[in-house]
């Protein structure tokens, strides 16, 4: 090596020839490097690993015993157990949390979509005084943090006897979900030509019949996406749900945050509860996966 | 019979239709002819009952239906866009008005299949409209209008979005399809040629006003005003302002216009001659009597299928001459234009027709 470097390189054609050789050699080399090192799949895999790691860890924890969680570091459950899930599915204090959450979420989704459908139709088809301002004002409801509304809701519901009921939480969530559903549905509805409405009226359809038989099937994806967004928001919302309930309508998320007992934290059961909380959202998103992007754009794609 | 009685429509302070009175007979074919934004669609929506007029009345068989909602009227409408119910099959699309009217199943089936056969949709009945071609989609819409047996059928430029071959086929079929039903057929179009092909009666519209209504050929041959003649001419009507002084009629630059005795009896003053492109020729006619020949500078030549339209500047006007056959006349070239002055329309100072061509057979 040393001798080679100290010796002056012979000038002229030899140099270019070597360069040419190098180039000739380098080209196939580069190709093999590109094929041998799959950069794109690698990045994607890393991304997915980082994304899924917390969920995997949660799943792992839910299948371990508390001893294993606290004492050893294991990548997968060494002492596989389903006892944590058994606790949740057998103890009313736990599973009623899911029942309560599901109840008010479903109530909220139905109410929100049912209220938003006619409102969105009006915004999409009619012009009336202040329609644009009203439409925008609806969305501003989403701009306030839920904490702002916690106090007035609590006082109002307490005084009219709605405190700690499912409908209380469902109605409170409507404050955020109805505007969102109106915006999403309005976007989908405006994509339907007005002439279809008119053709239906010319054919003799009454408004309710046209709406149910012609119009709703046309915007079915929009209804699905709106329902999904209502479901998702209501399912993950904790502050209002916890403030407005105590025992009878206590949501699962509240149950999960109140498990620090005198005996310490029950890690395994908590992890199992976490996994069970993810499942409904994953199920619902599966059904609207093709329209979700349009939904995030509020139906305006 | 449908009667519009001094109907006016004002939307947001903008007059869409002004003072329209029309009477359309049952079983007649009526054409609304006018450029875009002339008010054809607005007028149709008023006739259908989709919109209410600001003032005036709409009467069906002398019964006032001005405030009656569209679903209680016997109306069918076909739009320029292909409007069908995307979620229903073609069969259900066609059956829709009958289903709403709760007709017996057997009757619905019979009528749908009849209409489908007429419009050559038999093999498409199970598909959804999206799976059809544009022509088939529009035929589905037409079939739906057909089965309803409406007393008023409104076709708003139904062929405008179709390619020309389909347009020609459907245009020939359309009047026949609805002729049997005895309904009032109203057909909106922007194309004068389409009005002539369809026949019937024509109402020419201009900026929300009906400028003339009558049998199509009458309106074409004897337009009451310059405006009607311009609406009913494509390519645009050629005009030549002339001055009459005694028996002599001259153009602005002093060229004598050999009108013969066409303007005898009219007072002196300014007049406008109107003539369509096919009355202006690039070839010298057999006789020169009554022919105005003027030099022109070619601006553009449009070649359509088997004819050429030569746009030329002559006597200070932009004229279009029809030249049979395909001739590429290059821009800038000087040509002689021949106008049979005895065949042009003469409009008075108020743009009203004062002298029509004498022999209609020759026109």
UniProtKB/TrEMBL annotation, chain A:
The keyword Transmembrane helix applies. SUPFAM superfamilies: MetI-like. Residues 1-34 are annotated as: Disordered. The chain crosses the membrane at residues 37-59, 103-123, 135-154, 166-189, 210-236, 267-288. Residues 16-25 have a biased composition (Basic and acidic residues). Coiled coil: none annotated. It is a multi-pass membrane protein. GO terms for biological process: transmembrane transport. Keywords: Cell membrane, Membrane, Transmembrane, Transmembrane helix, Transport. GO terms for cellular component: plasma membrane. Residues 98-288 form the ABC transmembrane type-1 domain. Gene3D superfamilies: MetI-like. It is found in: Cell membrane. Belongs to the binding-protein-dependent transport system permease family. This is Glycerol transport system permease protein. The lineage of its organism: Bacteria, Pseudomonadati, Pseudomonadota, Alphaproteobacteria, Rhodospirillales.
UniProtKB/TrEMBL annotation, chain B:
CDD domains: ABC_Carb_Solutes_like (cd03259). One of its GO terms (molecular function) is ABC-type ferric iron transporter activity. One of its GO terms (cellular component) is ATP-binding cassette (ABC) transporter complex, substrate-binding subunit-containing. SMART domains: AAA. Residues 2-232 form the ABC transporter domain. Gene3D superfamilies: 2.40.50.100, Nucleic acid-binding proteins, P-loop containing nucleotide triphosphate hydrolases. It comes from the Bacteria. It holds the Pfam family ABC_tran. Keywords: ATP-binding, Cell membrane, Membrane, Nucleotide-binding, Transport. SUPFAM superfamilies: MOP-like, P-loop containing nucleoside triphosphate hydrolases. PROSITE patterns: ABC_TRANSPORTER_2 (PS50893). Belongs to the ABC transporter superfamily. This is Glycerol transport system ATP-binding protein.
